[in-house]
Amino acid sequence: MSSSAFPQALTAFGWDESLEKDFSPYRAAGLVPARIAAVDRGRCDAITEHGPVRADTTPVASPGDPVQGPCTGDWAALRTGEHPAVTALLPRRTAIVRSSASQHSHGQVLAANVDTIAIAVSLAARLALGRVERLLALAWESGARPVIVLTKADRSDDPAAAEAEVAAAAPGVDIVTVSATTGDGVDIAAAVLTGTVVLIGPSGAGKSTLGNALLGAELLATGAVRDQDGKGRHTTVRRELLPLPHGGVLIDTPGLRGVGLFDAGEGLQHTFAEIEELAAECRFADCAHEREPGCAVRAAIEDGTLPRRRLDSYRKLLRENAWAASRNDARLRAERENNRKAITKWQRQHYKANGRDR
Fold this sequence. Notes:
Keywords: Cytoplasm, GTP-binding, Hydrolase, Metal-binding, Nucleotide-binding, Ribosome biogenesis, RNA-binding, rRNA-binding, Zinc
Cofactor: Zn(2+)
Radius of gyration: 24 Å
Binding site for Zn(2+): 282, 287, 289, 295
Family: Belongs to the TRAFAC class YlqF/YawG GTPase family. RsgA subfamily.
Number of helices: 9
Largest sheet: 6 strands, mixed
Distance between the termini: 57 Å
Subunit structure: Monomer. Associates with 30S ribosomal subunit, binds 16S rRNA.
Strand content: 15-25%
CATH topology of the domain at 96-252: Rossmann fold
């Protein structure tokens, strides 16, 4: 590959030799590489080596399975010209997928090809450890590296105590405490959050304010937070991708009112790793950690090394994940049955048209 063919301008957005290799068949077909910055109703903003382009995503839209459709962070093969269009997506390295907020059993991709997931937790509100664990399961399942960022430290009476409490719910996860108002900890966060970074968390967690501190400019809209419950308005209304001044890119996401798990079995194992390790020491392989003799999990709860809350949260998320999986299995069975019926109908029409009975 000649050095002139490599899109140097895209390296700031994460382009590398591996992506260039994957893209070679598309380049031979006259297409150009682009990274999708935002998607909106069949159109997208895409970053190319020659600048931003507004393109059609219809050719690769996937109404049957939205998870396969284009989203922020995807690398794409773009047809240029009078009517630019995304014609294909490169294989994703990582993908943050949650259960769809609709009544359907499909997943929803929040962002793709993410290296680091910054889970924003506000210290100006009551800590919701169950939500932290839920977001961690989502993050671990994606394949990216989670980092918990405790925001608004200047509004906490005891940030160190809050950090210790969160650390107990997030074993093995880096935790950074920051105040975007005073600037404390922002330099540490900038050093820890590397590659393609996505900010996730509820409204009012300070994601956009943190993002502006990392970007070094007021590029993301911010809003006030209600004092009575710490909740904020959705100032970020869509996902967008912006280059960071010291390398890497930032994806800001709208505040998540609810995060349903979607096929997050491995993510739960990572999030509750200490329970998984204890369970392996139980006398019975199918131990339910209730009244069975020789239960290592219950013994850890009794001696205080494992909070009961952790086991309750683990069970709750396991049940939710199993329910989501059953919905997905039911949808797949229904789709297969509909396909079978369609084929049978076509065959009957074909036989009838040819004067034959089946």
